[in-house]
Specification:
Rossmann fold, GMP Synthetase, Chain A, domain 3, 2 domains, 5-stranded parallel sheet, 4-stranded mixed sheet, 9 helices
Length: about 300
C-alpha cells in the first residue's frame, strides 16, 4: 500500500524535475486526472494548463461540474468544445479497439494544438497501473487499449509525463481523500460514453445514454447516500438491440439498456453489486418512463473477470 504523504512529495518532485517550461494536463473530470491536476498545481502552479475537452461524449452537467472543480482549486484551465470533431471521426466505426484508437489520436491532435498555442512541450496524463496493464504494457495480452496508453498514436510532438502510473484505484482514492478532494467523483473512462455505446457512436445515441446515465447515477446516490458505501462504479450501457414493447396502449420498438454496478478495490478484479430488487425495479421504471426511446432494461451480473468493468 502506498504511503500517502511520501507519494505526494515524490509526485511533486517528479513533476518539477521533468517539466521543462510549460505543460498541459489532460483532465477528464474523473478521479485520476483530477488528483493529478491538483498535485500538478501544487508542484508547478500556472506553468501547467489543465485542459478539459468536451468530446460530446461526456455526462450531463459534466462541463459545469469540472469548471466548478477547477475554480475551487484555483487551477489554470481551459475548456474546449471539440464534439463535432469527435463525432465526425467516429462515423461508421463499430469495433471497440478502433474506437479507442481514434479517440486517443483525436485527443492528442487537440492537445498538440493547444500546447503549441500555450507554448507547452509536455503532456501530463492521469494514467494509472490498470490502464497500462490492460493495454498490454506487461506480459499479459492486450485486454483493451486505454485511450491514454494503447490508444495513443506512435508519433507525438509532446513529451509524456505520468506521475500516477504506478498507482491502483484504491491508492488513488486514499490520496484523494487525504487531499480532501470531493468524495463523490465517479470514475469515468477517458473515451467517455463512446465505450458505453455498443456499435457505432452517434450524437443521437450519446444524447440518449446521457439521459439514462443521469437517471442511474441519481438513483444510486439516493439508494446509497454514504459515498463510502456505494458501489465502486455504476453506469448504463446502450445496446445495439431493439425490441418490441408497450407504452400506454401503443406498440413501441425501442432500445435496450444495461445497468452495470460493480464493487472493487483496485479495478483489477471485481464483483457485480447485488442491490435489492425494488431498487432495480424503480430504476427500470424511471428509465423507461423518462426516456421513451428505451423500452427494455437489463442488469449485468458479470464479475471481473471474466468481464471487464466497462463493456468496451
Amino acid at each position: 500500500m502506498v504511503k500517502v504523504e511520501k507519494f505526494i512529495q515524490d509526485a511533486k518532485d517528479d513533476i518539477v524535475s521533468n517539466l521543462h517550461g510549460k505543460g498541459i494536463l489532460a483532465c477528464s473530470g474523473g478521479q485520476d486526472s483530477t488528483l493529478l491536476a491538483v498535485l500538478s498545481n501544487m508542484a508547478a502552479g500556472d506553468r501547467i494548463l489543465s485542459v478539459f475537452i468536451d468530446t460530446g461524449l461526456v455526462r450531463e452537467d459534466e462541463i459545469h461540474r469540472v469548471e466548478k472543480l477547477f475554480k475551487s482549486y484555483s487551477l489554470n484551465y481551459r475548456i474546449i468544445d471539440a464534439s463535432e470533431r469527435f463525432f465526425k471521426a467516429l462515423i461508421g466505426v463499430s469495433d471497440p479497439e478502433t474506437k479507442r484508437k481514434i479517440i486517443g489520436k483525436t485527443f492528442i491532435d487537440v492537445f498538440e494544438e493547444v500546447a503549441k498555442e500555450y507554448g507547452a512541450e509536455t503532456l501530463l496524463q492521469g494514467t494509472i497501473a490498470p490502464d497500462w496493464i490492460e493495454s498490454g504494457g506487461s506480459v499479459r495480452d492486450v485486454i483493451k487499449s486505454h485511450h491514454n496508453v494503447g490508444g495513443l498514436p506512435e508519433q507525438m510532438n509532446l513529451k509524456l509525463l505520468e506521475p500516477l502510473r504506478d498507482l491502483y484505484k484504491d491508492e488513488v482514492r486514499d490520496i484523494s481523500r487525504f487531499l480532501k478532494l470531493p468524495a463523490d467523483i465517479q470514475p469515468f473512462p477517458g473515451p467517455g460514453l463512446a465505450v458505453r455505446i455498443i456499435g457505432e457512436v452517434t450524437r443521437e445515441k450519446a444524447d440518449l445514454l446521457r439521459k439514462i446515465t443521469t437517471i442511474v447515477e441519481r438513483g444510486v446516490v439516493q439508494q446509497y447516500p454514504d459515498p463510502d458505501n456505494r458501489p465502486w462504479q455504476y453506469f448504463a450501457v446502450l445496446l445495439p438491440v431493439k425490441s418490441t414493447g408497450i407504452h400506454g396502449d401503443r406498440r413501441t420498438y425501442g432500445y435496450t439498456t444495461a445497468i452495470r454496478m460493480i464493487d472493487t478495490t483496485d479495478a483489477m478484479s471485481g464483483t457485480f453489486t447485488k442491490p435489492d430488487w425494488e431498487f432495480l425495479d424503480n430504476l427500470s421504471s424511471e428509465i423507461t418512463n423518462e426516456v421513451r426511446e428505451v423500452n427494455r432494461v437489463v442488469y449485468d451480473i458479470t464479475s471481473k473477470p471474466p468481464g471487464t468493468i466497462e463493456w468496451e
